[in-house]
Amino acid sequence: MVSNRELTDLQPEPTGTRAADIRAVPVRHPGRWLGAAAVAVLMAQLVHTLLTNHRFEWGVVGQYFTTKSVLVGLLHTVELTVLAMAIGISLGVILAIMRLSQNRVLSMTSWAYIWFFRGTPLLVQLIFWYNLSALFPRLSVGVPFGPEFISGSANAFITTYVAGILGLGLNEGAYMAEIVRAGILSVDEGQVEAAYSLGLKRVQVLWRIVLPQAMKVVIPPTGNQTIGMLKSSSLVSVISVPELLFTVQIIYARTYQTIPLLIVASLWYLAVTTVLTIGQYYVERHFAKGASRQLPPSPLRKLGNDLKAIYDARRYVH
Amino acid sequence: MPDATFTEPTTIGAPSGETVCRVVDVRKRFGAQEILRGVSLEVKAGEVLCVLGPSGSGKTTMLRCINHLEKIDSGQIWVDGGLVGYREHRDRLYELHEREVARRRANIGMVFQRFNLFAHMTVLENITMAPVLVRRQKRSLAAERARQLLERVGLGDKVDAYPSQLSGGQQQRVAIARALAMEPKLLLFDEPTSALDPELVSGVLDVMKELAADGYTMIVVTHEIGFAREAADRIILMDQGVVVESGPPAQIIDNPREQRTKSFLSKVL
Ligand SMILES: Nc1ncnc2c1ncn2[C@@H]1O[C@H](COP(=O)(O)OP(=O)(O)O)[C@@H](O)[C@H]1O
Ligand SMILES: [Mg+2]
Known about the structure:
heterodimer, A: about 325 residues, MetI-like fold, 14 helices, B: about 270 residues, alpha/beta, six-stranded mixed β-sheet, 12 strands, globular, binds magnesium ion
């Protein structure tokens, strides 16, 4: 064993001039180059097919891409996604807190909810909500087992659109509950105790300490769920909610241009997904506050760094 | 100088005004295992009590009981004239409402072995949160107080840093400032320097010595014998859930009477 003291004694005296940076020829990776070349050939072929196969009917795609009905359908899709996620996240937070409650009735109720909604197909749930009026022809708001304040026919309350949002949102709540629960459990117990010892009440600890820090764990899977929701929302086409997929289905049922119209819908789904992905990145950055010593670089910055690394590597080779 | 002689609390009931904390024959079980087996102690206003004892002897558990982070099975704990966790009415005990428990905890500052700073808040936010939320102080006033406290613990330039950007010693000093911001009647320290690199220990101990000199009432669980000798008015030695020996530093450190005190000191000195 050499002690630290001796190690520092072995250091050369500082001389004023700094030693030159290491310039070494990097290791070559021929395998990687071969792989990259094979992928490039396949990609070229794909692009070639996309451009030259006239059955894709790119002209028709362009023609329908921005028609009013498609844009309205897109708007409905985005609206459904946003509202269903809002319901799902709120419900998820409530269910997660219930699940972690000391009260057995609350935690078992939450458990049962999650069990039921994760255990049955979303499509079945949607059709169920759509047909709710068959089960309960009249709906009312009032005291349980007591007087009613408002009541009316179920069909008036549960329009297909409401059935769609409810179906998607209630189902999402079950998945979000598990995500939020994982987030809550990830928060350092010691900080919770510190907050109690300062005189904070349970609700304050939850809002100020636990949930903000749970976010770091909750957001990545929530972004994933939102993108999933964007596409699951197309399921409500089966109960005739006029969202993006339903809209293009209506059009191609009339014109038989199935493939180009499905491409129109897919391009829009991709576009929204791209926006969501970028949004998620910035939300994640926001909640990374204090978690690491430095915020991760933004994507542009990362690209810049990569280019610089390539440039530097080349310089050393010559 | 406060009275430094140990008085075994024998009477059950509210202590006199001078006593800040009185623990009477407290027992605490976890499952079948009894961790505190009849602990009694008393701390007067302005007094510093150091608690020594081997790991697992129940020191942390005792501090947590004083703060009602842990419920006791029997005995009584009085802090600042009030029973911890309960209200006595016509010879019956009533559990306190959460609101009341929180209100009393706010008067007891606690500094943890692992600092437990809020990772998502800056140093300033860590310190001002409870005064604003619990004491309803104005934000600007709380911030000004926080800056003064940070100066006092030697971290005036770290106001906007996040805990992860500070060394362990700096984090612990912020944690002390956070506790002080609530103007506590009693300060509890649970091995505040045990998680620190050796060269960072003295900075934290210096701050604690100043607090002791300023007249704060403190219970300090520590393995720093030098600190105990210098700052403590009284030292107790705990082992296996009981107080083995109690007395002024000179007695406990230099002339221990009990065999268990001797063997413990021989290991840490
Ligand atoms: N929440 C708990 N549940 C079960 N056992 C516990 C709990 N907290 C502490 N203990 C046990 O109590 C004993 C004393 O712990 P502690 O008070 O932390 O001792 P010290 O701080 O003196 O090292 C240990 O054996 C520990 O395992
Ligand atoms: Mg301990």
